[in-house]
Amino acid sequence: MTSDSVAKSLKFGNSSFTISTSDGQDASITGLYTYWNQSRSESAYVWFFHDINAKTSTYIMHECVPEVKELIISSSRNLLQTIHRPCLIDTFVVEHMAYVWMKLIAQDGYTLANFEDMPIASRRTNEEMVTMVEQLHSLARSVHVNSAHLVDIHVCLQFITGINTKYLELSSNYKDDHSVADSLTFVSSCTDTWTRWATNFAERIHIRINLFFNLTTQNDSRTNIDIANLTAKIAVETQRDSSSMITMASVTMFFLPGTFVSALFSMVFFNSGFDSLGRPVLSVAPQWWYFPAITIPLTVLVFCIWVLWQRWRNSSTNVILPSQVSIIEKNVDYHSS
After folding, report:
1. Domain annotation covers residue 334
2. pTM, 2 dp
3. Which CA distances in Å does 81 have to 49, 197, 319?
4. What is the pLDDT of residues 265-295, one digit of tens each?
5. Do 28 and 50 form a contact (C-beta atoms < 8 A)?
């Protein structure tokens, strides 16, 4: 934001001064107030000077809204007498600006109603709900900004009402039909009403954002549950595969020593041939006991080594949590005592 745009966005407070004559009589009221010009997105200023004795008013309006300018010109042409009522021009200004901000807050309310009319039961993706939350955040910002400007208009209304009351008190010869004061009271009541509605809209937006957040959390929970179930199934299948591999490894280890010994010594224990009568005969070599004598101890040795290796690996991969350490220490202290 440039320094020029910052200067245009500045809003000053409202001020008024009563000017007295040399003999101490109140002669005039002067002051300044500011409001936000929505059409130009910058601050607008009104300086006024009410001469009580001459019954005249002077205004200097910076960045006046075109609609207000047209209303002032139209009133000065058609109702020449009424335009001279004290604070009538100020009433035109604040009434129009209050209507602008009330209209914007009403538009925010219609947008919020569209969000509230969306079916909740329909299952939406997280991406869609994130987009809706972003839109609701933007809507909440609009409601807060518009309601803040409406509060400024309400403060300005109170200021102008005070100026009008002071002018009537100081001008004893002026008789007013209270139309300006009644108009200011009506506009002030409208701003109060729409300020309350803006607060209501902000709370409802917050509730809607929480709803979408909870729905997103539920979707994530369902996804996590599905992932957990799938992980459990994978773990069961992995365990089954591991059991099958252990069985195959055990069978392999059972036959491996015998195969090794047989291949190493090239042992041939069975011989087939024919006797003198030509009949087939199966004979067993006398060294057959070498095979079991060597194979059985070797098989037992292999299985013992495998079991010891499994125990060592399991003990080395165990992770002891800090809570388990404290429990172990307590048990040790208990037994030692």
Report:
1. no
2. 0.61
3. 19, 38, 94
4. 666 666 666 666 767 776 676 777 777 777 7
5. yes
